[in-house]
């Protein structure tokens, strides 16, 4: 064990980093670092699936890209605050870390706004011709943008000059310097928590209204529903963060540890919503992995199904039946190997590819061809 921390010999101000603060910093880095790496890998895979066969990048992808870039900046701004060993830091070091932890707050808000707007844009394509659904999605997007912009201005203008937000000495050194009372900041924080929790829940559960009506196998519906439902974990992180924020500004024994805990849950909320926004687009990769294990989302063994089709053809199956089976097999392979990068594949938009409809149309074309023969 290390000995007791020694204050600076010149008598300059110092601030102690306790064992609890250092422990929470290690937890923050150990938990958020692998998670943000996973989120970035999923985002890259999402973009790759959207461009590998044809350029299918749309507005939700651009919005997501901005959100991911802001999230990476936010993650970097929190690192200086995470001092992993008990020590004494100078007042200059304390102000420097507080500066970046403060700037991380508006960057976090911007990232969340663009990421959630991306999810709302994706949801809009589930039922693009349904009026009330379009209104619902646009209201969600408007609320997210309005709060995101207002919250950014509120944070940057809560102290005049801005430096007073992380350096309290400015309030005594600069004439006219002032900051909003802590109660006003907590009210805005609670309002933001309510908006974040409600939008997390709505964006996670609202698609299930239509998911079960899709003409897809049950296992595929469950898969897409589970991928969309990952956003519920972000709402849990937001709830935990809201309970911790209530202690902020009060009489706490270790304010640095409290700040580390709030930062960890804030980062978790952001990273989990990043994962939830990209997860539905990775359905083709999940389908391909299941196929390699011999199963499709329809619940049948891929290898067994292919052998059965060949066996019946070799034993005198009619040409009409063989062509229909072949057409369905082609559609199934397209579904298995990820030919459809759209997580829902419904509606009439250019990105939507209703596989069941295409299979039915292909079967009708086969019948017409046989009648002409």
Automatic annotation (TrEMBL):
GO annotations of cellular component type: membrane
A Pfam family (short name) is: Fung_rhodopsin
Protein location: Membrane
Rhodopsin domain location is: 45-287
Regarding the membrane, this protein is recorded as: Multi-pass membrane protein
Instruction: Provide the transmembrane region boundaries.
Output: 27-49, 61-83, 103-124, 136-157, 222-242
The superkingdom listed in its UniProt entry is Eukaryota
Q: Which UniProt keywords apply?
A: Membrane, Transmembrane, Transmembrane helix
Family designation: Belongs to the SAT4 family.
Q: What is this protein called?
A: Rhodopsin domain-containing protein
């Amino acid at each position: 064990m290390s000995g007791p921390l020694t204050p600076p010999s010149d008598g300059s101000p110092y601030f102690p980093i306790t064992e609890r603060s250092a422990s929470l910093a290690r937890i923050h880095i150990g938990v958020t670092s692998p998670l943000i790496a996973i989120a970035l890998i999923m985002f890259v895979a999402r973009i790759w699936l959207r461009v590998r066969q044809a350029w299918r990048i749309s507005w939700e992808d651009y919005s997501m890209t901005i959100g991911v870039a802001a999230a990476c900046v936010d993650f970097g701004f929190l690192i200086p605050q995470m001092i992993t060993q008990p020590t004494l830091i100078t007042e200059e070091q304390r102000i420097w870390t507080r500066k970046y932890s403060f700037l991380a707050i508006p960057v976090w808000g911007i990232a969340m706004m663009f990421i959630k707007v991306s999810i709302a844009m994706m949801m809009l394509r589930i039922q693009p011709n349904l009026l009330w659904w379009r209104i619902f999605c646009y209201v969600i997007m408007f609320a997210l943008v309005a709060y995101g912009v207002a919250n950014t201005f509120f944070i940057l203008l809560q102290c005049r000059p801005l430096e007073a937000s992380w350096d309290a000495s400015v309030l005594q050194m600069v004439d006219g310097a002032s900051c909003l009372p802590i109660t006003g900041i907590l009210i805005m924080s609670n309002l933001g928590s309510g908006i974040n929790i409600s939008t997390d829940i709505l964006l996670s559960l609202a698609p299930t209204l239509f998911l079960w009506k899709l003409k897809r196998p049950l296992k595929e519906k469950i898969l897409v529903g589970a991928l969309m439902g990952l956003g519920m974990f972000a709402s849990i992180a937001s709830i935990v963060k809201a309970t911790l924020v209530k202690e902020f500004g009060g009489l706490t024994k270790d304010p640095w540890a409290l700040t580390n805990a709030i930062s960890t849950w804030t980062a978790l909320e952001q990273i989990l919503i990043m994962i939830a926004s990209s997860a539905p687009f990775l359905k083709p990769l999940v389908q391909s992995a299941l196929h390699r294990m011999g199963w499709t989302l329809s619940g049948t063994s891929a290898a067994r199904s292919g052998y059965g089709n060949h066996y019946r053809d070799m034993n005198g199956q009619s040409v009409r039946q063989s062509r229909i089976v072949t057409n369905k097999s082609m559609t199934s392979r397209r579904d298995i190997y990820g030919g459809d990068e759209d997580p829902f594949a419904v509606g009439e938009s250019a990105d939507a590819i209703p596989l069941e409809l295409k299979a039915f149309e292909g079967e009708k074309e086969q019948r017409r061809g046989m009648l002409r023969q």
